[in-house]
Each structure stands twice: as structure tokens, then as C-alpha cells.
Write a structure and sequence with these properties.
This protein is of the alpha+beta class. Strand 1 and strand 2 form a beta hairpin. The chain starts with a helix and ends with a strand. The strands form two sheets. It has a three-stranded mixed beta sheet. Strands 4-6-5 form a three-stranded antiparallel beta sheet, covered by helices on one side. The chain has two domains: about 80 residues, GMP Synthetase, Chain A, domain 3, CATH 3.30.300; about 60 residues, Ribosomal Protein S8, Chain: A, domain 1 (2-Layer Sandwich), CATH 3.30.1370.50. The chain is built from five helices and six strands, in the order αββααβαβαββ. It is about 50% helix and about 25% strand.
């Protein structure tokens, strides 16, 4: 972890939350595939309204504000009160169920429409099984992910 970049990310998120009238705690956690930004404190539940749309928006803003040439392959996942972590596990569970159906029946299974973050989670989950592949279909922000057997 680069300390200067991480400090900038924490300051940036703290400033955005401050502009929203929120004073919350922000901490970073290094994971194998990303850096998790954990937001906690009194009032953090405001970020969870409308199925976490504010978290999604904040995540896009952070990953846009911190240019790719600065962060390299690092991706920031913004979470509040463990909401996204729980949703990610639920999404992976559904993906695993559809993976099993695709393997057992041979019929491709569709999941979605999903935003880019959710699609990435599904693609990574399916990639754990070398007998299956995924494909995103659609031209919009929200796309469908198709899980099928490798040919």
C-alpha cells in the first residue's frame, strides 16, 4: 500500500462525506483484489438508502478521482457498515447456484441486469471454476451476465 495515495483517498472521501454533512470514520483494508474503504460511525446508514446507490456513486467517484496511472491495478471498494460485504456474499451465492445449474443442465444461465461492480464480482466468482465462462451482454450501464459451460 502506498501511504501517500491511501491518505489522499481517505482525505478525499472524508471531504465528500463532509460536503454531505456527515462526519464518519474512514479506514482502508487491503484485500487480494482491491482496497476496501470501510466507512463507519453515527449516520453512516444514510449511505445505504436506496439499496446502497450512494455507496455505488461514491465508489465511482473515488475510482475516477484517483487516476489509474496513480493507482495502477488497485481498485477501491467503498463500503459502509459492512453493507457491501454482505451484498457481495449474497451475489456470489446466487452466482454459485446459477453456476451449478449451468453445469448440471448445460443451459446457459442469465444474471442481472447488473452494474459494473456486480458484474465483476460474478465474473470473478465464475472464474474459480475452469469448466465455466461468463459473458456480459448489453449496451447500457446495466448488463446481463450469462454463465455457461466452456465449449
Amino acid at each position: 500500500m502506498t501511504q501517500a495515495l491511501d491518505a489522499r483517498v481517505i482525505d478525499f472521501i472524508t471531504d465528500v462525506l463532509g460536503a454531505m454533512g456527515l462526519t464518519l470514520d474512514v479506514a482502508l483494508e487491503e484485500t487480494p483484489d482491491a482496497v476496501r474503504v470501510n466507512i463507519t460511525g453515527e449516520g453512516a446508514d444514510v449511505l445505504l438508502r436506496r439499496q446502497g446507490e450512494t455507496l455505488d456513486a461514491l465508489q465511482v467517484i473515488v475510482n475516477t478521482a484517483i487516476r489509474r496511472d496513480e493507482r495502477g491495478d488497485r481498485h477501491y471498494i467503498v463500503d459502509a457498515l459492512g453493507f457491501r460485504k454482505d451484498k457481495d456474499e449474497e451475489l456470489r451465492k446466487v452466482a454459485r447456484g446459477l453456476m451449478q445449474m449451468a453445469k448440471d443442465s448445460g443451459v446457459p444461465q442469465e444474471m442481472g441486469p447488473l452494474n459494473p461492480y456486480a458484474r465483476r464480482q460474478v465474473h470473478l466468482t465464475v472464474a474459480e471454476d475452469p469448466t465455466l465462462v461468463t459473458e456480459s451482454l448489453g449496451d447500457d450501464f446495466l448488463k446481463i451476465v450469462v454463465i455457461s459451460r466452456k465449449s
